[in-house]
Design brief:
Layout lengths: L3 H8 L6 H5 L2 H15 L14 H11 L15 H5 L2 H4 L3 H20 L9 E3 L5 E3 L17 H11 L17
Antiparallel strand pairs: 1-2
């Protein structure tokens, strides 16, 4: 039975099946089953085999934001362009490895805590194919005005640079002309 307070709010709704409240639903149950069976065709599910290539694995890795924790040595003598780059572009030193380990740990914790969010970008491959940490994704950017980092500094800035001018008639409400 519907409470009296809700009956006026629900009475205008067309999406409610009133037969449920009157007990008539059981009579029409077989008819609904028959209609549902006509609407659908049974199809056997056959998964298609996709060849796993290096490109597909790299694409999945980028989408998931995975960080590689193994660092194979790459031969940079094969391409002339790579020879022009500094050695730090083509290799990962011990500090960077430790940083990538911390970043992977953080990524796992973030994914465990926020499963519905898009994965964050913490590391990506550079032009040499070496995965490097992206520092701007964790560290906040610095403002050119360090006094604005605290609320006291913000209050001082507002008091120094903004002047208060009271309105002539405080009881009038301004309305925009359209």
């Amino acid at each position: 039975m519907i409470p009296v307070q809700l009956s006026t709010a629900i009475s205008n709704s067309e999406s409610i099946n009133w037969k449920r409240y009157n007990g008539e639903e059981e009579e029409d149950e077989e008819r609904y089953k028959y209609e549902e069976e006509e609407d659908f065709i049974e199809v056997e599910y056959r998964p298609t085999a996709v060849p796993i290539t290096r490109e597909i694995l790299q694409k999945i890795q980028r989408e998931l934001g995975l960080i590689q924790l193994c660092w194979p040595e790459k031969d940079i003598r094969k391409e002339v362009y790579l020879l022009t780059l500094p050695n730090s572009y083509c290799s990962v030193n011990d500090k960077e490895r430790l940083l990538l380990l911390y970043a992977e740990n953080f990524r796992r914790q973030f994914h465990t805590k926020y499963k519905d969010r898009k994965p964050i970008l913490l590391a990506c491959e550079n032009e040499c194919g070496v995965q490097k940490f992206v520092s701007t994704s964790i560290r906040r950017s610095t403002l050119p005005y360090p006094e604005l980092y605290t609320w006291q500094g913000c209050a001082k800035f507002v008091s120094d640079y903004i002047s208060y001018e009271p309105l002539g008639k405080e009881d009038l409400v301004l309305v925009r002309k359209t």
